[in-house]
Amino acid sequence: MAGPKLGKKSGSKLGKLPAKKKQKKEPLPAKPLEKEELFSDSEGTDGDFQEDDEQEINSDSEMSSDIDDPFAADILGSGDADDGSDVNSESNADSDSDADDNDLVRKSKAIDDERKREEEDNDLELQLNIKEEADDFRLPTTEELEEETQRPPDLSNLQRRIKEIVRVLSNLKSLRQEGVTRKDYVDQLKSDLGSYYGYNDFLIESLVELFPPVELIELIEAFEKPRPISLRTNTLKSRRRDLAGVLLNRGVNLDPLSKWSKVGLVVYDSQVPVGATPEYMAGHYMLQSASSFLPVMALAPQENERVVDMAAAPGGKTTYVAALMKNSGIIYANEMKESRLKSLTANLHRMGVTNTIVCNYDGRELPKVLGQNTADRILLDAPCSGTGVISKDESVKTSKTAPDIQNCSQLQKELILAAIDMVDANSKSGGYIVYSTCSIMVEENEAVIDYALKKRDVKLVPCGLDFGRPGFIRFRQHRFHTSLDKTRRFYPHVHNMDGFFVAKLKKMSNSKSAAKSSVQSEEVEGAESIENSDQQDSEEDDDKHSDKKGIANENRKLKEELAGDKKRKRDVQTHSVKKGAGQNSGATKNGKAENQVVATKKREKKKPLPREEIAKAREEKRKALREATRKATMKNK
């Protein structure tokens, strides 16, 4: 009987265990526990839970002692463990969070303290540097300079000294060293700039003469950086908006160039080579620097005109002119170097230009080939030293010298005179010459334009560009024409484009020296008018009174009388000469020769009368003729 009872009891107990376990868990939710923890210590709550568990376990002691099933034991043990672990995990989580907060506060304080220490150290170091280097800056002595030449160049020291010299020159009165002149600082600055940036003495000296020290450093730093890549939309084949959309889809990051250009785009970066896209191959755009837009914009060619580009390769400006002319008219694209003709013709074909004739002549000979006074507009992008594009060609830093600049200037003067001779001053829409260089030298820019103003009858007109610095009217010992402020200069550190110069001239007359010729013609007319005044007045009177025979006869009589008077005077002069010759028969042939020389000298010394006297003489003769005609008419009546 005991066996079955035990089995029945054990079975009933095992069947009720899950229900009891669930009942235990239901009256112990998490929320009441949290409230008790808020109002009491964690240790007291743990003890209360343990007492409740012991009472429940004792009530079922008979069942637990008789259970041999490991599964049931596991269920009971797991329930107890769960109940205890929930409470312990919550208390442990609170303690861990407090510890983590304390650690974060401690670490943040340590970081703040370290930052403060670093800032204080930096301030102290800066103050020490200012005291040692800035306030007490002194130029190096000759011995120190000799030691520097023997050692490799210390670039950091050179850079520091350049900055200090510029700072001193900006406020020389208060910062200069005693006994040191401005020339000493400038000479040291030239030397340091040449050795730090790699310029020769001539170019550095030229730049120092052009710019103040602060701006000079900005210019040289700008030369060390490349200019942004720019594109020009070919309006013969595309529009800027359409081209920008296509290139953006190809991974080209670009924007419109600026407000002054309607066809330019600037490229920041690209995932594809910009010079090898299908659009480039199809001639939808041209890779062209922003400064190359300016001469064509100043030229402003019109449709159906005759335009000459005297130095056309590689064709960027020529294709821009053709696009503005919409392939109408005629463009003569000349290039002296035969090796550059291939790139010129290739770009013309790629861009779809059909109104251009390519020729290969020296620009100075073009007036003989194309004829004088035959073109409406001339674009002369003259060959130059390239001092404005050092960022593209760093060899300019050391290769250019004073003779090179003089040779370029002489060539440019000859080219601009040839360009002026080709332009027709009587053109209805043109008569303009645009001169441009990629140089910033005064000898290649303002001096050339001033020379052209003196040699030809031209004047400067505004370029039509809203930006750019005006050209120099005076530079050191040079004094130029006052209208040179209409020319424009562009710099990389100011306009973020290559150094450039643009001037626009208007031809006033087709004579090569109109100003001088007008003065000379006035003098010649004045001299001839004295000799021919009688004949001109008589011819005018004959024309006016040709219908009146009596007046004509009277005029003839007056002329005959005047002619008789002249003959009588000549006879008297010859008679006196013969008489004097008879009296002075002993005179030698040398004496006669001397008299002839004196007479010729007197004739040479005679100067033409001023215009006022000429006008008075004419008026007197006219009055005499009028009086004579009046008397003649009175007699006939």
From TrEMBL:
Biased amino acid composition, Basic and acidic residues: 25-38, 103-119, 543-565, 607-630
GO cellular component, alphabetical, reads: nucleolus
Q: What molecular function terms (GO) are annotated for this protein?
A: methyltransferase activity; RNA binding
Q: Which domain of life is it from?
A: Eukaryota
Keywords, in A-Z order: Methyltransferase, Nucleus, Ribosome biogenesis, RNA-binding, S-adenosyl-L-methionine, Transferase
Q: Where in the cell is it found?
A: Nucleus, Nucleolus
Active site per UniProt: 438
Q: Where is the composition biased (Acidic residues)?
A: 39-71, 93-102
Q: Where along the sequence do coiled-coil regions lie? A: none
Q: Where is this region: Disordered?
A: 1-156, 513-637
Q: Where is the composition biased (Basic residues)?
A: 1-11
Q: Which Gene3D superfamilies match?
A: Sun protein, domain 3 (3.30.70.1170), Vaccinia Virus protein VP39 (3.40.50.150)
SUPFAM superfamilies in the cross-refs: S-adenosyl-L-methionine-dependent methyltransferases
Q: Which PROSITE patterns match?
A: SAM_MT_RSMB_NOP
Q: Which residues form the SAM-dependent MTase RsmB/NOP-type domain?
A: 219-508
The Gene Ontology biological process terms listed for this entry are:
methylation; ribosome biogenesis
Q: What Pfam families does this protein's entry cite?
A: Methyltr_RsmB-F (PF01189)
Family named by the database record: Belongs to the class I-like SAM-binding methyltransferase superfamily. RsmB/NOP family.
Descriptive protein name: SAM-dependent MTase RsmB/NOP-type domain-containing protein
Q: Which organism is it from?
A: Solanum stoloniferum
